[in-house]
Amino acid sequence: LFGAGYAMAQDRLLQIEFMVRAGRGELAELLGPDLVGTDRAVRSEGYTDAERLGFLEAEPERIQVLYRSLAAGINRYVEEAMVDPGSKRPFEYSLLGIPLRKFTEADLLAGGEVGARFFGGAGGSELHNQRFLRFLVEKHGAEAARVIFDDVVALEDPDAVPTVPNADAPAGGEGSLGETPASREAVWGRALAAAVRSRIAPDASIWKQRILGRLGLSQGASRTIAIAPGRSSTGEVLMMQATADGFDIHIRGATFEVAGLSMPPIGIPVMGRSRHHGWLVTTGENDVIDLFAERLDPENPKRYWHDGEWREMEVREEIIEVEGEAPINLEVARTVHGPVVEWDLENHTAYSKSMTIWGKECSAWRGVLGLATARSRQEFAAGIREMPVNYNITYGGREGRIEYWHVGRRPIRHPDIDPRLPTPGTGEYDWRGMVPFEEWPHVANPAQGYLHAWNNKPTADTRYGDTTRWGAHYRTYLPISLIESDSSIGVDDLKRFNRTIAAGFGSVDLTLTDPRILSLIHI
What we know:
Helices cover 35% and strands 22% of the residues. It has helices at residues 2-24, 28-31, 36-44, 49-57, 61-83, 85-88, 91-96, 105-120, 126-140, 142-152, 189-198, 205-215, 361-373, 377-385, 477-484, 491-502; strands spanning 122-123, 223-227, 238-242, 247-253, 256-262, 271-274, 277-283, 287-297, 300-306, 309-312, 314-322, 325-335, 338-344, 349-355, 391-397, 402-407, 423-424, 442-444, 450-453. Strands 1, 8, 9, 10, 11, 12, 13, 14 and 17 form a 9-stranded mixed beta sheet that branches. A hairpin with a 4-residue loop joins strand 15 (391-397) and strand 16. 42% of the residues are buried.
């Protein structure tokens, strides 16, 4: 892993720099006042360095050694670039005025948090839904408003195409405690891309392309296909991954013999292949973020009511450095539910953000490590169990098995809570634990002979929360129709499928509609 860190820095030092700055809320220091809002959000929802190091120190000693080896490899290359900037410093550092610096373990952990939260969590739109519902009530009255709201922000859609085929779903509906597939919002991506563009001369278009490409700010989405031996022209498992960003790394030695796609500063394949198996990943897009409405003390807005008593918020001060402007002081507050993200002092209310990934981002690195070093299906499944991040993971083994899990921590909510709207934070409606591993949506060797995961809902009975809705029209229709049109699929067929899908709006547009649905429309 020392070598992997070195190689990653050699190829992707600029991306490591920006991921670290994104995770620490330090973009405005480099790119100016346009990024202050992004830094505010990240600081408000982030950790202190002491907390980050505490997460690492809570991991098994072997994990700590491996992570620190990766960090040491990154910094070895940085040291060499400081001595020989002419040949080892990325040219963008000079172009953007970025000083070379060594990274602390807390820095790299912060950079890893970006990927874990961006790709592994959705939800948190309760205030948007609440404003929408209030608008409907004012316009149509309470009764009609609720009918419209339930239709537009539906909790269930049994017609949506699930990853686990209905014919293979266990009796009782495995995954019924799930809440939703979802769209996600980049905390920093679009703003960062715009800021970087604004810093580069208009005639330097080739440099714009290279910088933005290396930062990983591409548009698109990931999709995966696994073909079982019975439908494969080779008689073996075939797998295809098409994703929006990433670079390949091949690690060989000790317990490693693995190659695949990674993301700085993670340093190990998030998806890829070993001698025994391959595995594919897409974002799970489940509702794993809730906003809790805290009742504030009218005499002291830093006190809130929880479990029958007034509690003091945890409060700390942060300073945001801004290029060309004075620093900004930021007060960060937390409740038992998480960081406070919005205040409504007029109504003595604050909204705290609860995330199932909270404090578990470092454990996600351990989980990915387990998938990458597994030497059997059983070891791979053990790694799956360790994953706190909400992903869809598809497995294909040399033994001919294809398998799918919808993984990660998902909350068990109070049965009286509407997940589309803020949850009262007074205590009686708090989360009741996490969905146990045994109830994670899962299927092995489906009768249809293939698996297709493209951020669609995992099972037919998965309930939605406060996130985007996928129905029968959803873009998955195109890959599925291509797969089902051919009973014997080869590698060239998968390449053709990928080109066909990528050439259409389905590769970037989540609202792509199955043309067959037009037959139901009467004008």
